[in-house]
Write a structure and sequence with these properties.
28% of the residues lie in helices and 27% in strands. With 390 residues, it is α/β, with parallel strands linked by helices. The chain has 3 domains: 81 residues, Beta Barrel (OB fold (Dihydrolipoamide Acetyltransferase, E2P)), CATH 2.40.50.140; 201 residues, 3-Layer(aba) Sandwich (Rossmann fold); 62 residues, OB fold (Dihydrolipoamide Acetyltransferase, E2P) (Beta Barrel), CATH 2.40.50.1070. The strands form 3 sheets. The chain has a 7-stranded mixed beta sheet with strand order 12-11-10-13-14-16-15, sandwiched between helices. The longest helix is centred in the first third of the chain and has 20 residues. The radius of gyration is 23 Å and the shape is globular.
Length: 390
């Protein structure tokens, strides 16, 4: 308590930079989310579009109690890993954060961010985090994008594009460098036939070959790295010698079907009615006849599903939305104790939080974290984690 009080007093005595002031900053590191972290007289300032080690000038645009935000004005000492961005909208559009950084160095930055997050949130050691698995195609990889519309009263026109960086406004775009070419062909069509009003999100998607996927149901966003992802999940499952598989938040049944030939029996659960119907169709199409797909919420059905199989011979896949796994589902897993949990997440912070709970009191131990660069040039990173029962 005394230490916390002293820290608060120290923050209060530090001179805060003024809004509008141009300051010189050395960037100490890149925080998760893509912003650089530097200090002005010991006061933390976040600056976008910079790289660790660079000295820059930034204009202060926001000041909070313990930090400020600045906009990049000038790069005084550029990093040797800085490159020219491929996309002309980069820096204005909010979709990408790292196009100014060499790709191999993006992977190193993301690995370090995962290490720091897992250490801070879960107390996990650095050696648990493997190097990031690179994407074989770093541009034109996204198979799904959300194009937004917004009425601009000043210009008296409907804007069609993506959300502007750090803003709710829309920036007009004609093409996206990280989207598949088929989607870029659809953007002019959306502009030519725009929605009747602003505030509409238009879902553009390239359907996966052979898989049945309803328009708004989830499927992995990058086909190019999917084989590497599946291969890693299969190896993790095989290494535990499990006979049974429970695939929660299973969507259209992708992982359960891809692992079906490694298990005696499997079961998948999903609350999306259309997705579970598609999963049943996909299981027939791909010959995964040793399991079933059930409609319902994971937290409601998990106790029943876990009773189907012997816990010491069962692996559970958790692939929840960004908000993480339902607390009641985590408690069920801690109670029933299946021998392995393969937790897949695109949000490392909620992942580390949930793993911390699963591993509390030594119930589970974290074997490895395998980051996968599902989203090159962006702040996002997918992680596959392997937990074993102690």
């Amino acid at each position: 308590m005394k230490e916390s009080t002293e820290i608060i007093k120290k923050i209060e005595t530090i001179t805060r930079p003024e809004i509008g002031k141009i300051v010189k900053i050395k960037i100490d590191n890149i925080a998760f989310g893509g912003e650089g972290v530097g200090r002005v007289e010991d006061f933390v300032v976040f600056v976008p579009l910079v790289i660790e080690g660079e000295v820059v000038e930034a204009k202060i645009i926001e000041v909070k109690k313990s930090f400020a935000r600045g906009e990049l004005v000038k790069i005084i000492n550029p990093s040797p890993i800085r490159i020219n961005a491929e996309c002309k909208y980069f820096g204005n559009c909010g979709g990408c954060q790292y196009q100014h950084i060499r790709y191999e160095d993006q992977l190193k930055i993301k690995q370090q961010q995962i290490i720091e997050l897992f250490k801070r949130i879960g107390g996990f050691s650095e050696d648990k985090v493997a190097p990031v698995i690179a994407c074989p195609q770093t541009f034109n990889y996204r198979n799904r994008i959300l194009v937004r519309s917004q009425w601009n009263g000043k210009a008296k026109k409907l804007l069609v594009g993506f959300r502007k960086r750090n803003s709710h406004w829309v920036v007009e775009i004609n093409d996206c460098k990280i989207a598949e070419p088929a989607l870029n062909k659809q953007i002019p069509e959306v502009r030519a036939n725009p929605p009747k009003r602003g505030g509409i999100k238009i879902n553009l998607r390239v359907a996966p070959e052979d898989w049945s996927v309803p328009d708004h149901s989830f499927f992995q966003t990058n086909f190019f790295i999917l084989p590497k992802m599946v291969n890693k999940v299969r190896k993790i499952f095989q290494s535990n010698n499990s006979e049974y598989l429970v695939d929660t938040y299973c969507g259209v049944g992708f992982f359960a079907i891809e692992l079906a030939n490694l298990a005696k029996k499997f079961v998948g659960v999903e609350s999306d009615k259309l997705a579970i119907k598609a999963a049943q169709e996909n299981s027939i199409k791909f010959g995964a006849e040793n399991g079933e797909f059930i409609e319902g919420r994971t937290e409601d059905l998990l106790p029943e599903l876990l009773e189907k199989f012997s816990p010491n011979k069962t692996s559970v896949i958790l692939d929840p939305p960004r908000k993480g796994c339902a607390p009641s589902a985590i408690e069920q897993l801690r109670k029933v104790k299946p021998s392995q949990i393969i937790y897949i997440s695109c949000h490392p912070a909620t992942l580390a939080r949930d793993l911390n709970i699963l591993c509390a009191d030594g119930v589970y131990r974290l074997e490895h974290v395998y980051p996968i660069d599902m989203f090159p040039h962006t702040q996002h990173i997918e992680c596959i984690t392997d937990l074993r029962l102690n």
